[in-house]
Write a structure and sequence with these properties.
23% helix, alpha+beta, two-stranded antiparallel ribbon, globular
């Protein structure tokens, strides 16, 4: 009985410490942040980028799937390389600077192989942060009411 109480207490403490992950699948565009230009910390991606889809999002980080662990010859995770991420949240583009902290290869066969990347949010413009948090709290409603621009009628 005491063991159960201790386990419940530890679980409650852990849940309060960690950000709640919400499962949303939205388009994501990832590129490397310009290290030499401090004014372009979370600017748009130019030539070298990779696209994918988010798996989960929280106040402090995002998880996303991409088809490769590298862009050109640079790895997305490790070596303290900041990434610029652009999310498409119900018609709004949200930009943030993240740091890849872990990755995992998923998929059974080479043709379906993807990489799940966990990234910590480092920086985001104030208006993007407000829109991001609004989406985290109301994402299901927003996604249901959002209709993409190119929708074909039957």
């Amino acid at each position: 009985m005491i063991r159960e109480l201790v386990e419940r207490f530890n679980k409650t403490i852990t849940e309060r410490r960690a950000s709640v992950r919400r499962k949303f699948q939205v388009p994501v565009k990832v590129c490397f942040a310009a290290v030499s230009d401090p004014m372009k910390l979370n600017g748009p991606c130019d030539d070298s980028f990779i696209t994918g889809e988010t798996v989960d999002m929280s106040d402090s980080g995002i998880g996303f799937l991409v088809s490769s662990i590298r862009i050109n010859e640079k790895y997305l995770v490790g070596q303290n390389r900041p990434l610029n991420v652009e999310l498409e949240l119900a018609g709004k583009k949200i930009r943030m600077r993240v740091m890849g902290v872990r990755y995992e290869r998923v998929g059974v066969h080479l043709s379906t192989e993807h990489y799940l990347i966990g990234a910590a949010i480092e920086e985001m413009a104030q208006k993007d942060r407000a829109a991001y948090e609004h989406f985290l709290n109301n994402g299901k409603k927003l996604l249901q009411s959002y209709k993409p621009a190119l929708e074909f009628e039957a």
